[in-house]
Amino acid sequence: MFATYDEAIAFLFSRTNYEAAPPAYDQVHYDVGRMARLAELLGDPHAGLRAAHVAGTKGKGSVAHMIDSCLRAAGYRTGLYISPHIQDLEERISVDGRPISRDRMKALIEAVKPAFDTLQSEERAPTFFELMTAMAFVEFRSVPVDAAAVEVGMGGRFDSTNVLSPAVTVITTISLDHVAQLGGTLASIAREKAGILKPGVPAVIGDLPAEALDVVTARANEAGAPTLLFGRDVSFDRVGSSRCVLHLAGGDIDDVAVALSGDHQLHNAALGAAACRVLASCGLDGLTDEAIRTGLATTRAPGRFEQLSEGPVVIADGAHNVASAQVLVQTLRDRWPGKGVWFIFGCLEGHDAKGFLRAIAGFSRGIITTPIRSPRTYSAEDLGRLAREAGSRDVVEAGDPEAALAAARKLSDKDEIICATGSFYLVGEIRGLLPG
User: Fold this and answer.
1) Mean pLDDT across 394-404
2) Is the pLDDT confidence value at 28 over 70?
3) Residue 395 CA, distance from chain mean position
4) How confident is the model at residue 24 (pLDDT cuts 50, 70, 90)?
5) Mean pLDDT, the chain, whole residue set
6) DSSP letter at 81?
7) What secondary structure does DSSP assign to 170-195, as a single string?
């Protein structure tokens, strides 16, 4: 059908892509019915998929990776669907911890093309993300996988992934992000995230602000979804650097080492472990406490406080809102107390660049701003102005991420830290500039 991989990818990226320019978050643009019709034409590949469905403002990707890692540690064949990708599109769909190959990506695009053509003839042409979601489900059925961790793209209620009938749902955190689409209050954002809750399906709920928690628990009660709440049914005690005891309904798991860095990842680990306990009760009884321990200790999630090089240390973190910026600063402070940090910062329009820069400016040694390869990128000049207004001591405006990295290396002392942040797209570009 497509002569080459590049031709297939060109078709996929020619579809309406709300990641590049997100419209209003409503049923006109984000049509779950259209996604359901696409799945129907493909034989409902998601039907019967034993899945953990993960939403949240931040932490959802980390939790999805943790669940996948625990399932693999238990010996199960797994599927993982995440977004966005950091460097290669194939990262979005993984089987047994490995992204699919380019040949498989081409085959999946060809597999969904006839269904796309039918829907286009019905004047309901699927979007890029709907096609990607359908391709993930087709792959998971084809393998087949024993279970999957599926990350929500944006929001929840109208997300393409919400055609799932999962075994467990997870809402990690709720803070202000994508406010133009999801609303400018915690309650409005919570309403959209809570749209993934399903009747009778256990829901693991993270440490939410009271305003958001009220909305989520009300929706859970309305849907008849049993809840496992952080602080009531799920918690942890930190017992050392990246180690904790997990307190879960059904018994504690002690001596847990969490591979992903930062205290926020201990919270994510508790949520992931609680979701695994639910999956274990759904026929995956090999998902023991020991498997959970092993999975959390071996989780790898690119772009989550990822160290890319030594001398100087370069960290890449996909933090992209104020709450995650504050967590990033605390993690850097804990890991390297007293050391200066040069930030390379780039982000997309629609995110609170001003608030993010305020969160890092006082902690930073300096900020180097850069555009990202995206039509929605802020310019280096606009970000530089915001960084100065935020009180940054030194601001450099770079023409692109390569120039930004070169400037950071030139300006930083040998014992200072360089941290690239603000967007997973920037993280991908920085990763591509460094070996390994």
Assistant:
1) 96
2) no
3) 29
4) low
5) 93
6) E
7) EE----S-SHHHH-SSHHHHHHHHGG
With cut-offs at 50, 70 and 90, classify the pLDDT of residue 223: very high
pLDDT of residue 41: 98
CB 182 within 8 A of CB 152: no
| Concatenated DSSP letters of 30-79 | S-HHHHHHHHHHTT-TTTT--EEEEE-SSSHHHHHHHHHHHHHHTT--EE
**CA neighbours within 13 Å on the CB side: how many for 411?**
23
Contacts of 272 (CB under 8 A, 6+ apart): 63, 66, 67, 70, 170, 296
What whole-number distance in Å separates Cα of residue 294 and Cα of residue 401? 36
Q: Are 93 and 99 in contact (CB under 8 A)?
A: yes
**Residue 241 pLDDT:** 81
Which DSSP string do the residues of 232-257 spell out, in sequence order? Answer: TTEEEEEEETTEEEEEETT--EEEEE
User: Are the beta carbons of 319 and 328 closer than 8 angstroms?
Assistant: yes
Distances in Å between the alpha carbon of 123 and those of 34, 119, 126, 411?
10, 6, 9, 54
| Beta carbons within 8 Å of 347's beta carbon, 6+ residues apart | 320, 353, 356, 372, 377, 378, 383, 422, 423, 426
Give the residue-averaged pLDDT of 246-250: 94
Can the peptide bond before residue 114 be classed as cis, meaning omega within 30 degrees of 0? no
- Where do the domains of the chain lie, and which CATH numbers do they carry? 5-298 (3.40.1190.10), 306-433 (3.90.190.20)
Burial of 332 (0-12, 13-18, 19+ CB in 10 A): buried
Is residue 121 within 8 A of residue 165, CB to CB? The reply is: no
pLDDT band (50, 70, 90) for residue 215:
very high
Nearest Cα to Cα of residue 97 among 120, 73, 63:
73
Instruction: Give the Cα separation of 138 and 145 in Å (integer).
Output: 11
* φ and ψ at residue 407, rounded to 5 degrees: -65, -40
Question: What is the C-alpha separation between 248 and 270, in angstroms, rounded?
Answer: 8
Beta bridge partners of 99: 94
What average pLDDT does range 122-136 have in this prediction? 95
**Distance of alpha carbon 10 from alpha carbon 312, whole angstroms:** 38
Q: Which residues contact 385 (CB under 8 A, 6 or more apart)?
A: none
CA dist 363 → 187, 342, 358 (Å): 30, 9, 9
29 has a pLDDT exceeding 80: no
Model confidence pLDDT, tens digit, residues 310-324: 878 999 999 888 988
The Cα angle at residue 57 between residues 214 and 259, in degrees rounded to 5: 115
Q: Fill in the DSSP letter of residue 125.
A: P
Q: Measure CA of the first residue to CA of the last residue in the chain; give whole Å.
A: 35
